[in-house]
Amino acid sequence: xxxxxxxxxxxxxxxxxxxxxxxxxxxxxxxxxxxxxxxxxxxxxxxxxxxxxxxxxxxxxxxxxxxxxxxxxxxxxxxxxxxxxxxxxxxxxxxxxxxxxxxxxxxxxxxxxxxxxxxxxxxxxxxxxxxxxxxxxxxxxxxxxxxxxxxxxxxxxxxxxxxxxxxxxxxxxxxxxxxxxxxxxxxxxxxxxxxxxxxxxxxxxxxxxxxxxxxxxxxxxxxxxxxxxxxxxxxxxxxxxxxxxxxxxxxxxxxxxxxxxxxxxxxxxxxxxxxxxxxxxxxxxxxxxxxxxxxxxxxxxxxxxxxxxxxxxxxxxxxxxxxxxxxxxxxxxxxxxxxxxxx
Length: 343
Description:
- By secondary structure, the protein is low in regular secondary structure.
- It has one helix spanning 16-24.
- It starts with 15 loop residues before the first helix and ends in a 319-residue tail after the last helix.
């Protein structure tokens, strides 16, 4: 390709055609260019440097933007449906209210980017770096975020997805440690092996979610709805489930040591082999729950409802049961608080 002359080098403001012509001539550096409202639909700008560019309201529908540098770029309300942004650098970019429906952002660097109210429905964010990203109010329905990294860097810098819609999203293996997911819609989402350690899930909609093998230790889930969810083998030591709806949920083999489940409901839930030592279950409704072979050593069960629960071979050593409702509960082989075996 011919080398552009000095006079042909990009200027801060240019037309879309001028940019495309310069790119075709071999120019790659468009740092700080102003292209407000530009029509660059289906444009091929692979590997271009658009750092700090102003692309507010620009049309980049189906554009090829692989490995593009858009660090600190302004993409407010930009149209990017179906765009290919694989491995692009969007760190600290402003994508608020942008349309990224069906866009591909695999391996994309979105650290500290602003995606508030953005449309990411069905977007591909596999292994994207989303540390400290702000996705509050964003639509991530059906998005694929497998292996994405939302990990909290420190107490002051955490991903914010407050109020986002992640219904049916695939987050398998994602790192959401310390993320703010308060009031997020994650119903029917795949959260298998996800790290949510210390995350804020207060009031989140987690109905029918898959959390198999997930890490919820120290997470806050107060008043969340986990009805019908699968938490098989979940690690949730010291997690706060106060007021949570876990009715008809599966918690087989769950590790819930020192977890707070005050006033939670687990009606008909499966807790076989669950480890609930020193767990606070005061005023919790566990009626008809399956607690076979569960360990509840030193658990607090003040006014807990265990009516018709199955506690076969469960261990209740030193547990507080003085005000527990055990009406019609199955206690065959149960180790009672005093160490005796119920027959």
